[in-house]
Amino acid sequence: MDLPPAPIRWRATAIPFFVAVLFVSTISPSRAIYCDEDDCYDLLGVSQSANASEIKKAYYKLSLKYHPDKNPDPESRKLFVKVANAYEILKDEATREQYDYAIAHPEEVFYNTARYYRAYYGHKTDPRAVLVGLLLILSGFQYLNQSTRYNQAVAMVKKTPAYKNKLRALELERSGGVTNKKKSQKNMDKKTEEDLSKELDLQITGAEMASVWKLLGVRFVLLPYTLGKLLLWTACWFWRYKVKKYPYSWEDASYLTQRSLSIPLDRWRNIDEATKEDLVLRRLWEKSNLESYVAEMRKESKRRR
To answer: Which residue spans adopt a coiled-coil conformation according to this UniProt entry (predicted)?
Structure first.
């Protein structure tokens, strides 16, 4: 098969290419997603430099002219839809800025298209509202979990003989050592038991009563205050004990002792005062004293075995 001359072949392939280029340059795909083949500003009859008030007035004027209730012509209805769409794009500063950028940079097709779909089909929820909602949900579950654990722990403690003995001793104390013989040891009046149980301070390790101040949401709200308080405490500690070389106060020495022994705060509070005083006087925050104390505890543990 004979091929046509090269110049003819070049013209045959180049003409469709130039037509395609001309079409793309005339109607940019990134612009077409906004107002199809039309210009949003031309649809409203305003310039690109028009302010929000001018755009609004132009839309109201055209809507009175082309609205289906005012003009029954089918072509008028189509034009009204285009005008309304152009107004939705230009009335919002963010979408108008995106459209202006698409006009100025028609070559960035994919970028302009992505911005358009993100603006119109992306989530509209304020991230701050999502964060607040998430904190409320987590705080609710946290409070429910703490309450359930505490109530279960209290129910288990109330079944122990030690608790019942304390309850009986408290009843004897309140009655002056006189008990009602009609009541057996096992059948204490429920109302009396509830009243007496309220007077007993139950210290349950690992299960504390639910507190609003320990919830995640409350702590997040108070985070700036907490950080400020921590920074102030750190500065005062550094000034008092590092710069001025003052001796440790009893509270600070207790804190250092508790931290050196890695004892949780709730357990430290439950230690009797005599044991606390002995531990603090040992100055266990000093490495040599702590090593001696640990060795002493190991020897004592071996003797007990």
So the answer is: none
The predicted pLDDT at position 201 comes to 56
Asked if residues 82 and 106 have their Cβ atoms less than 8 Å apart, the reply is no
Calpha distance 235→229 (Å, rounded): 10
Alpha-helix residue ranges (DSSP H) falling in 52-126: 52-66, 74-91, 93-104, 109-121
Can you tell me which residue has the tokens 């459209």?
A: 99
The amino acid at residue 133 is: G
Residue 249 in tokens: 């106060």
Question: What structural domains and CATH numbers belong to the chain?
Answer: 6-121 (1.10.287.110), 129-212 (no CATH), 223-304 (no CATH)
227-231, 256-260, 268-272: segment of lowest average pLDDT: 268-272
Element of type H or E holding 162:
helix 161-175
Q: What is the pLDDT of residues 113-141, one digit of tens each?
A: 887 777 666 566 677 888 889 999 999 99
Residue with tokens 């091929």: 3
CB count, 10 Å around CB of 257?
21
Q: Cβ(28)–Cβ(116) under 8 Å?
A: no
Name the pTM for this structure: 0.48
**CA distances (Å), 108 to each of 35, 40, 113, 239, in order?**
17, 19, 9, 59
The set of residues, in sequence order, having a beta carbon less than 8 Å from that of 271 and lying 6+ positions away, is: 263, 279
User: Which among 66, 98, 81, 96 is positioned nearest to 36, based on CA atoms?
Assistant: 81
DSSP annotation of 92: S
Residue 18 vs residues 12, 13, 96, 104: alpha-carbon distances, Å: 11, 9, 31, 22
Per DSSP, the three-state class of 76 is helix
**Percent of the chain scoring above 70 in pLDDT:** 76
Q: Determine the Cα–Cα distance for residues 106 and 281; give it in Å rounded to an integer.
A: 78
192 pLDDT exceeds 70?
no
Give the pair of three-digit tokens for residue 273. Answer: 């005062």
